[in-house]
Structures
1.
Amino acid sequence: MIRKLFSLENRKSNNLIGLDKRAAMAIQNHFRLTNYQMLVLSWLKGLWTGILLSLVIHYFLAH
């Protein structure tokens, strides 16, 4: 089975938004995720980033 990592139609957009869309599609196709699973994955990534950021800020302010 051949999986398309990058669509040829999206090659025109070389800006950051186009790059982000292509990266998201590559992850979604590689791991065979649905749109809802990608939404949950991005939410968990944001939650994890927030937790780590708050721990770093707490460390620097408490010491």
2.
Amino acid sequence: MSKKKLSTLALHAGYDYSKSLKSRAVPIYATTSFVFDSAQNGADLFAGKAEGFIYSRIHNPTTTVLEERLSAYHGGSAAMAVASGCASNALLFLGLADSGKKIVSSPHLYGSTFSFLSHNLKKFGVAVEFVDVNDEKALRAAIDKNTLMVYAESVGNPSGYILDIEKVSKISHGYNIPLVVDNTVTPPPLLNPFEYGADILTYSLTKLIGGHGTHIGGMIIEKGDFDWGANPVFTNYINAPDPTAEGTNFWEVYGKPFYKEGKSAVLINKLRGDVLRGIGATLSPFGGHEFLKGLETLNLRAIRQSESAKIIAEYLSKHHKIGWVHYSGLKDSPFYDLSQKYFPKTGPGAVFSFGLKGGYEAGVKFIDNLEVFSNLANILDARSLVIHPASTTHSQLKGKALLSAGVTEDLVRFSIGLEDVDDLIEAIDKALSII
């Protein structure tokens, strides 16, 4: 079904109802384990010589449909569902990382990801260097023979920083290393980074793909055409006998015969058989079912929410009580040209931030008097959301520490939902009139 359009793939890819008692909806397989046909069948399943399910910590029929559907939705080769967006990044880093190796990353990241890269990976002897990856000179200076990947978010939250995927992927590939993009904020139909050269995508399914604020989950998607055999930096784990998988060389078995056709699944097989099986950060079948329902309407929701965000950002940019707006679709944004390159029709997603001229006190008063919007620590729900980080998520930080985290006392973040845009503007205008 790879040649179908997005709306069709979101409803049908990865599932054959004739093999599931003709259930039109994907069933929830609420089971820990799966019965083997025979002792030999069990042995073959564990050895990877037969297809089938073993244990839901490794894979489950419900989550497998979600994996195959999202992989097809992006034109990828394989995907792996995990327990959260943070888990998708952490498992990827741990699956590829090795003592003495290095990750080059953009600093414009979700706070927990930044912290994991800055602190947790050091315990494993993995170096991380943060640079403006859009700056070619800085990126080339950061990459060395031990570099495993270049990592960035497609659109930074809440900075609005836009990754120049096409440019950065060409530089990365010149060193035979993959570009990894966290595309949580702008999944297709807004942006498919694979079309511009990205090799691996990570997602928090919790956000726009799930869309309804009902479950936590994550996903790793492999494009399938990266040559993991071209760089000796990968010979310690992908292109070498793996002791955790009975000496399997994942590149030789799952990658080398298929990558030129874009069908290599070496990374996902490695991650599933190694870190997911060992760490167990597994997405439940109930969560998989929730995200399948969200995916069915993603194509409609993403465009509507992004269009409304653009209208509201433009409205705020002209309001006399607003000091600044970080929305890269505005003409005065330093990322406007990149916004036009990657989001010419839809705008760069539904999340952006702005500053109130009254500072901290104005931010608190605005939040307390804002109707319709929900004040909570999430983004990209079907409902519009708002938060004032300086008084909530970053309240433990003051002064320079707060600024170093990319947060000012006046900063307010919006995540625009599916409500009528006129009702949202009315609510914003009423709250602004009080401060």
3.
Amino acid sequence: MQQKYWIFIGVVILALLAGTFVYPNYVNQGIDGLNGKFGWHVPHFWSKPYTLGLDLQGGVNLIYQADLIKTDDKGLAMQGLRDVIERRVNMFGVSEPVVQIQGSDRLIVSLPGVKDVKQAIEMIGQTPYLEFDEQKTEAESKPILDKIKEIQDAESKKEDYTKIKDWQLALQNPYFKPTELTGKYLSKAAVVFDQTTFKPQIQLTFNSEGSKLFEQITARNIQKPLAIYLDGASIIDTTGDGKIDVSDVYAPIIQDKITGGTAVITGNISAQTANTITSRLNSGALPVKIGDPISQETVGPTLGQASLQKSLWAGLLGLLAVVIFMIIFYRLPGLLASIALLVYVAITLSIFKLVPVTLTLAGIGGFILSIGMAVDANILIFARMKEEIKQGKAVDVAIKEGFGRAWPSIRDSNLNSLIVCAILFIFSTSFIKGFALTLSLGIVVSLFSAIFITRILLQVFIGKWSEKVKWIL
């Protein structure tokens, strides 16, 4: 009996802590009052905000299409692209960005809290695409140069150059062609200084696969230039005009085959420029090219706030409806189950804050659904208790039998629900993942609430006295 009451006290303390963590305002206001009245320095209760998704706090949703024409392993390239973009937006302090692959060549970037679409696009566009281009042969260059001259002649005569056959050929670089080596294979970039001239240089370190490619490229291009491009432009300003444009071509001559996977970019660059380029490279070179977003959507904070308010009201009304149902149909046990349900809500919301779970409309929907599912176990237990009491058994025996005999059904039904949640979480998109995550967490906590908390409340508040007023059961 003593152990039972100690457990009950522990449940009360847990409920108070969880409830205060969910909504600490009243407690902190009380602490401020005591500190002001008595001159104390009691700290506030720990306050941590919920992490809200784009649809609740507003933000920007962008869809990009990757250029995978020259890519063999498209799946691996898209995974690398997603990781790099995610790393990039994290550097800018975006709260809980969602970067996910859609289909075979599209990338969805959701940036909660970002209100400026232009700023978001620039943020992602700053991630560089690094490539190493080798010199074309004369036979490869001549058709392009001839086509460029042909177009120039047409323009000088004010003729429509788009009528020239294969005029798009002139858009190609006539002197250099891409190699297999791109920023996908870059491990690290660092600023180093020449030991003789003390001029800044940029040292590139490639991974194992990149080291092999770099060795092969340098081996077949000895005494030839190797152009280095960042986002289609030269890596540095070679003309000295203060800007990097098409007139700049940085193509150092390869003196010998380079092994070991380390390359050094030299030239007339300042320490500030070297640091800027190194920072951009380390922020993640894109493994494949992406242009401007093919779709962009802005969710305003006002719309997100309205959705959040409606969701909270839906949850509150759902909880109230469940409580009324339980009290009407199961009377005192229903009231105790409702109290356990309130503790369940407090614990679940606390977990959402602690993990933290990014709450979206779908995630809140999963939580509201879990409120209804949380009383399923109680209904099974109470139905079994009712049968035991009708057979003339004592109330304490009926409680024990009710929990014992209802457990297999409770276990199997909740296990099936968790399996479905796991399938949804693994194979679905991020919004459905949020629904599956909140629902699964709710199911786990509901088992604790129904089997442990409700049982303790029944044992503490329902005793032999209730046998005289069985209608209350």
4.
Amino acid sequence: MRIVIHYLEGIDGVAIFPIIGIFIFFSFFLGLLYYVYRMDKGFISDMANLPLGNDPEQNEISNKNTDIDHGRKYN
């Protein structure tokens, strides 16, 4: 590790790279948080109940009550 530190100390401007990395890291998660916050609550509910919706009659009722088409094909 001492060798790596020795070589990095000789590079001018190397301290900016960790700052850029932290900025990208936090920007990604702030963007993801914003996306999740703005997501449609009906879509989240549909996705949460998706593995549990095995009753075909209940699926038909829930399909009639939704206004949003998420690209799923129903028979």
